[in-house]
Amino acid sequence: MQIAMIGLGRMGMNMARRLLRDGHGVVAYNRTPDKVEQMVKEGAVGACSLKEVVEKLSQPRIVWIMLPAGSLVDDHMNRLREIMEPDDIVVDGGNTYYKDDIRRGAMLAEKDIQFMDVGVSGGIWGLDKGYSLMVGGLKQTSLYLEPIFKSLAPEEGYLHCGATGSGHFVKMVHNGIEYGMMQAYGEGFNILDASPYAESLNYAELAHLWNQGSVIRSWLLELAEKAFTKDEKLADILGYIEDSGEGRWTVQQAIESGVSAPVTALSLMNRFSSQEKNSFSNRVVAALRREFGGHGVVAAKKE
Q1: Is 260 buried (19+), middle (13-18) or exposed (0-12) by CB count in 10 A?
Q2: Is the pTM of this model over 0.85?
Q3: Quick count: other Cβ atoms within 10 Å of Cβ 215?
Q4: For residues 53 and 47, is the Cβ–Cβ distance under 8 A?
Q5: 173, 186, 195, 179: which is closest to 250 by C-alpha?
Q6: Residue 302 — very low, low, confident or very high, per pLDDT cuts 50/70/90?
Q7: What contacts 287, CB < 8 A, 6 or more positions away?
Q8: Number of neighbouring beta carbons within 10 Å of residue 203
Q9: Rounded to 5 degrees, what are φ and ψ at 285?
């Protein structure tokens, strides 16, 4: 299939690469041209504007957006609404608030442009391992896009979740769970680090051990092992943990739905408090975010 990838950041560029590897035609667009030039070298067709993106696609056009949530997505949606045609498809694969999907989907529907929201998980490892895709929108459009999903995801790695907004809603809850899991690992290693046995423990070895049949084994523990192997005490980073939005939305949804979610809420509060102190548990969580998603960390100041 032919598809345009708008936004060539950590995720978008690797997703474009994965599509190219599987034989799809990719039109690449980014606000800064250097990334477009890189993708052209790897086999994509470059575009210098949204108008050029549309011109280089055959109908029905498929445009996949990988941009930070907020006004930037609205700007691109509004422009695409004016230059795309009926039966064209816009896919938002960023971490978007699901209520924005509903609004944008209705806006595009006025021009008979189809809209799909796809929650994407996989971080910087997705290029090789594949991306978990949570798909919202019309079922028939999801079926049409299956060749794209199959190329991006590992086996059994995508799911149509329901109507518009459902994909990003499921991804929002996924990230809320992620907040709580990372917080639990961080607190556990913090207790170990404050114990009488801290000097005899190798945290990389311990993370490896817990992944050998333990009830708490996970990919996050694999990443913890990598992080501790690089820096046993994580001394080179500060325990400053960014709040990128999804945790807030999950807690907000829990409040709106009257659902108790204390672990998610407390892990979100801890991210706020992480700006004020540098605990070992926060350094663990910051290191895990760097390992799975390539998220930036704040370097610790050298004495």
Answers
A1: exposed
A2: yes
A3: 5
A4: yes
A5: 173
A6: low
A7: 223, 224, 227, 231, 234, 237, 297
A8: 21
A9: -65, -45
Neighbours of 50 (CB within 10 A): 19
User: Cα 189 vs. chain centroid, distance in angstroms?
Assistant: 25
**How does DSSP classify residue 299?**
B
**Helix (H/G/I), strand (E/B), else coil: 61:** coil
Query: In this structure, are strands 2-6 and 62-65 parallel, antiparallel, or unpaired?
Result: parallel
At 12-69, the pLDDT tens digits run 999 999 999 999 999 999 999 999 999 999 999 999 999 999 999 999 999 999 999 9
Cβ(286)–Cβ(239) below 8 Å: yes
Among 59-63, 91-95, 242-246, the minimum mean pLDDT is found in 242-246
User: Who contacts 83 (Cβ-Cβ below 8 Å, separation ≥6)?
Assistant: 50, 51, 54
Catalytic residues, which ones? 171, 178
Beta strands per DSSP E along the chain: 2-6, 25-29, 45-46, 62-65, 89-92, 114-121, 132-136, 158-162
The set of residues, in sequence order, having a beta carbon less than 8 Å from that of 99 and lying 6+ positions away, is 165
CB 189 within 8 A of CB 153: no
Which has the closest alpha carbon to 50: 79, 26, 24, 71?
A: 79
